[in-house]
Specification:
Layout: E1 5-18, E2 21-34, E3 38-43, H1 49-57, E4 64-69, E5 72-73, E6 81-84, H2 96-110, H3 117-130, H4 146-159, E7 164-168, H5 176-192, E8 198-202, H6 206-212, E9 215-220, E10 223-229, H7 245-271
Parallel strand pairs: 3-8, 3-9, 6-7, 7-8
Antiparallel strand pairs: 1-2, 1-4, 4-5, 9-10
Helix pairs in contact: 2-3, 2-4, 3-4
């Protein structure tokens, strides 16, 4: 495996047993991700995007194949990975600061690194400042808007200093303006991080994928159909990139993949009528 490879997936398949039948969720997935890359996974609903991410999280166990991080087979969750979900997954009885500092303290402990609760709190507060929530650190999640809660979730993930950040449609439930603000915030934090995180980001939004990604992984049911380089110059922000010829060409390419997949599914369904 090359030195700059952090995630290596070979011939990954995953099946579920249900009601005396087998459902194949993933089949023969192959993907190599370099250290510091920002990867977006796109595809229609039910194609396996979130299932693939769950394998990287360690929540789902593969049926066959190999999934390695830093050359070691994944065996459950790991402190080198942090996850941000669409639901904010904050402890409702803890303040924003407590949610982040608790995660920092526990993650360092899992790594065998000594850290005081005071230091964990200082790290937490510094990341709440980065997401512009330092004046809300003593608020409970229920006292924060959806966008603010997701900022806390991002701060919590980044404060734990993971090598890999796994994100499952984290902005999917937010309105367009808040979504755009958080996209730009995430890019800024990723770009300015001294130890640039490897990000695997699931989304159904093609514009979001183009804005964020170094490479876009297009999935069809069970499979990876294509891996597309996103060579738009960085730093990126709306609306500037949307006016470029390169942006429009990449968008049309992705739309064509979606269109062709829909036609294939219609043919299959028609044949089964």
């Amino acid at each position: 495996m090359e030195d700059n490879t952090i995630i290596e997936i070979k011939n990954l398949s995953l099946s579920y047993e249900s009601d005396n039948s087998t459902y194949e969720a993933l089949k023969d997935i192959n993907l190599t991700i370099k250290r510091g890359e920002f990867i977006c996974i796109v595809g229609s609903s039910g194609c396996g995007k979130s299932t693939l991410l769950s394998v990287l999280e360690g929540l789902n166990i593969k049926s066959s194949g190999s999934v390695k991080i830093n050359g070691k087979e994944i065996n459950g969750a790991g402190a080198e990975r942090a996850v941000v979900f669409q639901s904010y997954s904050l402890f409702p009885w803890m303040t924003a600061l407590q949610n982040v500092s608790f995660a920092v303290y526990e993650t360092y402990k899992k790594r065998g690194q000594k850290i005081s609760k005071k230091k964990a709190s200082e790290i937490a507060l510094s990341f709440l400042r980065k997401v512009e929530l330092n004046t809300f650190e003593n608020k409970l999640p229920g006292e924060l808007s959806g966008g603010m809660q997701q900022r806390v979730a991002i701060a919590r993930a980044m404060a734990c200093d993971p090598e890999i950040l796994l994100m499952d449609e984290p902005f999917g439930a937010l309105d367009a303006k808040i979504r755009e603000n958080l996209q730009n915030l995430l890019l800024k934090m990723w770009r300015e991080d001294e130890k640039k995180k490897t990000v695997v980001f699931v989304t159904h939004d093609l514009n979001e994928a183009e804005l964020l990604a170094d490479r876009i992984v297009f999935m069809v049911p069970k499979h990876i159909h294509a891996v597309i380089d996103d060579n738009l110059p960085r730093p990126r922000n709306y609306p500037l990139i949307q006016e470029s010829k390169e942006y429009k060409e990449l968008y049309q390419k992705l739309v064509k993949y979606f269109y062709n997949e829909s036609l294939e599914l219609m043919d299959i369904e028609g044949a089964n009528l």
